[in-house]
Automatic annotation (TrEMBL):
Name of the protein: Dihydrodipicolinate synthase family protein
Protein family according to the UniProt entry: Belongs to the DapA family.
Organism ancestry: Bacteria, Bacillati, Actinomycetota, Actinomycetes, Pseudonocardiales
The UniProt record lists the keyword Transport: no
The UniProt record lists the keyword Membrane: no
Pfam families (alphabetical): DHDPS
Keyword line: Lyase
Length: 308
């Protein structure tokens, strides 16, 4: 019996309804991607129980990597995952580059792609739909996750896009408005997509309350057990327990969000450096933390994130 298109993506959709880890991209002393450390960091979150890993996400400094580096990071992730989890390759830039990256992801063994928000000063809603349709159509075998950061995108556009490309199965919603999210999800089809809270742990309880079933995480690089604990609480509908996790996460995540998210990746890498897992180096336009900021990361780690 042939496998239907919906059944073909069932397992990938199930895994997306969880913690979607966005690994950092570690650099060596010369500033190049450090493959050994990268593989260890990916294995660490998988061993902890995470079922989805997204190389070349924003926490992975996607826009600071060149094409060869993003392909290398994806290949390292697929190799480290060794079939244990779903790999969602971050792709983006112009349509041709994104399609090339998506096809490489398919050839490398990834099962899904996440399409970054278009980087263009003049984005029309219709153009947004066509951008994503063209990329999804080029790789019909891969599941596609949309990364929505534009509040102008409504449920109508998402539904129309899924009508045109049935492999569009997930939405990473990163507009900081849970009320709007609730409306968009229902207008698009609450059960048609996997709805992922795209603003990580601090937004997860509010977004789960109105329809999300997964959330993205950069924090998971540092404290995977805490991210998974929050997920279990949210799945159980135990919002008291979920908010206990939220309170532990809050100081660290607020450091990341400060100054318009300027130190988002720097804070994660600093924490990993303090744990002896990764160098703290980031690439411009990010910057390393000041000594005072490093002290605040230390205070957020112990006993907060790493409390037993």
């Amino acid at each position: 019996m042939p496998v239907t298109s919906s059944a073909r993506f069932d397992e990938r959709k199930r895994r997306l309804s969880g913690v979607v880890a966005i690994p950092v991209t570690p650099f060596d002393a010369d500033g190049a991607v450090d493959p050994e450390t990268y593989a260890k960091l990916v294995d660490r979150v998988i061993t902890a129980g995470v079922e989805v890993v997204t190389p070349n996400g924003n926490t992975g400094e996607f826009y600071a990597l060149d094409e060869a580096e993003t392909r290398h990071c994806l290949e390292l992730t697929v190799e480290a995952a060794a079939g244990r989890v779903s790999v969602v390759a971050g792709v983006g830039h112009d349509v041709g580059t994104a399609i090339g990256a998506a096809r490489h992801a398919r050839e490398a063994g990834a099962g899904l792609i996440m399409i970054h928000q278009p980087v263009h000063p003049y984005v029309s809603v219709e153009g947004w739909v066509e951008y994503h349709r063209a990329i999804a159509a080029a790789v019909p075998e891969l599941g596609v996750v949309l990364y929505v950061r534009d509040a102008r995108i409504e449920g109508e556009q998402l539904a129309r896009l899924a009508d045109a490309a049935e492999n569009v199965i997930g939405v990473k919603y990163a507009v900081p408005d849970p009320v709007r999210f609730a409306a968009v999800a229902r207008d698009a089809g609450l059960r048609r997509f996997v709805w992922i809270a795209g603003l990580a742990e601090l937004s997860a309880p509010g977004y789960f309350a109105v329809g999300a079933t997964g959330f993205t995480s950069g924090l998971v690089n540092v404290a995977p057990s805490l991210s998974l604990e929050m997920l279990r609480s949210l799945r159980d509908g135990d919002f008291r327990a979920a908010m206990a996790c939220w309170e532990r996460v809050r100081p660290f995540e607020e450091l990341r969000a400060a100054d318009g998210n300027a130190n988002n990746v720097s804070v994660v890498k600093e924490a990993l450096a303090q744990l002896g897992l990764c160098r703290r180096a980031v690439r411009p336009p990010s910057r390393p933390l000041t000594p005072g900021e490093r002290e605040r990361v230390t205070a957020a780690l112990w006993p907060g994130l790493l409390a037993r």
